């Protein structure tokens, strides 16, 4: 009946260790829980008697056409959730007409994901998430693969100079993928698979380098501070994802939705803002749009849908959110996703 119910269905079929990997956050998981709780503190104040047609949901984000302002955030290791892995997820995304951000740590290669998406859509919206590596030659090779596969943007995760401490994973001793499952985007020409290197040395200099080696739009994922948003503008970044990594990196950071209006004020409409973390309802998407987002991204709900029902499960998650979004916009008196005013949201009223 709703997106939250997919988690219980997924837990019933997943290996408990793999469920914990997907479900967990860093340390005390304060930020992970706060992401959802923050939406509950936001009330909607609808307008009435607006006299408009049913709301239009379509958006264009950095040139990518989307049927609605809901994206699939990059999440790793989909084959732990279902044997088809990212193949099933990308088919569901393409069929629904939504933007999917393929993870660098996907268990299906970006080339194969793009091919699967094109089986169900002529022009699927596929972006690629990247951890900048100290080995710039290796980084460039991955960028070239994403370009050749037809990815329309690069999403650089910037909140990971080190790996957040996941205590559930440590208790389960989950540190390696099962035999036969690998991070295929890290596979080199000779067949070996590298590990990801997270380094505190990664800086704006590396973003400038990336800007010089690709013409694709560059999106920064993991921005929470307005000063960093202002720096992104100066460095020619094309969009920002307001995110705390789903609470999986630094525990104790504020909910992403609470930072969204602050960053919207900082960039002044000069670039698109996206947001992820804790989105479970169509009303959550409306709240994000009101507070300055161009679109909102979902992560764990896609994994729960994938585990519970493969491609059909992901499709059901997207359909539920689409129907809820349409209903919420109608009840709020909005005629499109581009006409959601900030005063629609009342903070601290719930």
Automatic annotation (TrEMBL):
The keyword Flavoprotein applies. Keywords: Flavoprotein, FMN, Oxidoreductase. PROSITE patterns: FMN_HYDROXY_ACID_DH_1, FMN_HYDROXY_ACID_DH_2. InterPro entries: Aldolase_TIM (IPR013785), Alpha-hydoxy_acid_DH_FMN (IPR012133), FMN-dep_DH (IPR000262), FMN_HAD (IPR037396), FMN_hydac_DH_AS (IPR008259). Its cofactor is FMN. FMN binds at residues 74-76, 129, 157, 221, 243, 276-280, 299-300. It holds the Pfam family FMN_dh. Glyoxylate binds at residues 21, 131, 245, 248. It comes from the Bacteria. Residues 1-350 form the FMN hydroxy acid dehydrogenase domain. Belongs to the FMN-dependent alpha-hydroxy acid dehydrogenase family. This is Alpha-hydroxy-acid oxidizing enzyme. It comes from Acrocarpospora corrugata.
């Amino acid at each position: 009946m709703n997106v939250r119910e997919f988690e219980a269905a997924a837990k019933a079929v997943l290996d408990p260790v793999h469920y914990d990997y997907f479900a967990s956050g860093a340390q005390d998981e304060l930020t992970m829980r706060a992401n959802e709780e923050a939406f509950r503190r936001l009330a909607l104040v609808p307008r009435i008697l607006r006299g408009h047609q049913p709301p239009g949901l379509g958006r264009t984000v950095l040139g990518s056409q989307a049927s609605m302002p809901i994206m699939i955030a990059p999440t790793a290791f989909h084959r732990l959730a279902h044997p088809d892995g990212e193949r099933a997820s990308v088919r569901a995304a393409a069929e629904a007409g939504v933007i999917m951000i393929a993870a660098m740590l996907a268990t299906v290669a970006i080339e194969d994901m793009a091919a699967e998406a094109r089986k169900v859509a002529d022009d699927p919206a596929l972006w690629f998430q990247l951890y900048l590596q100290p080995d710039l030659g290796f980084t460039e090779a991955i960028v070239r693969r994403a370009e050749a596969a037809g990815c329309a943007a690069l999403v650089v995760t910037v909140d990971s100079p080190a790996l957040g401490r996941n205590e559930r994973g440590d208790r389960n001793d989950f540190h390696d993928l099962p035999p036969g499952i690998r991070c295929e985007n890290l596979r080199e020409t000779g067949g070996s698979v590298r590990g990801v290197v997270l380094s505190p040395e990664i800086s704006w200099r590396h973003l400038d380098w990336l800007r010089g080696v690709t013409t694709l739009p560059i999106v920064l994922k993991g921005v929470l501070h307005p000063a960093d948003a202002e720096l992104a503008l100066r460095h020619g970044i094309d969009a920002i994802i307001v995110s705390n990594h789903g609470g999986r990196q630094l525990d104790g950071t504020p909910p992403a939705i609470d930072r969204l209006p602050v960053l919207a004020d900082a960039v002044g409409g000069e670039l698109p803002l996206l947001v992820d973390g804790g989105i479970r309802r169509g009303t959550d998407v409306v709240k994000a749009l009101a507070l300055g987002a161009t679109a909102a991204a979902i992560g764990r709900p896609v994994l729960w849908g994938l585990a519970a029902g493969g491609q059909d499960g992901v499709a059901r998650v997207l359909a539920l959110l689409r129907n809820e979004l349409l209903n919420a916009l109608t009840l709020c008196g909005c005629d499109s996703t581009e006409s959601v005013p900030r005063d629609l949201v009342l903070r601290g009223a719930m």
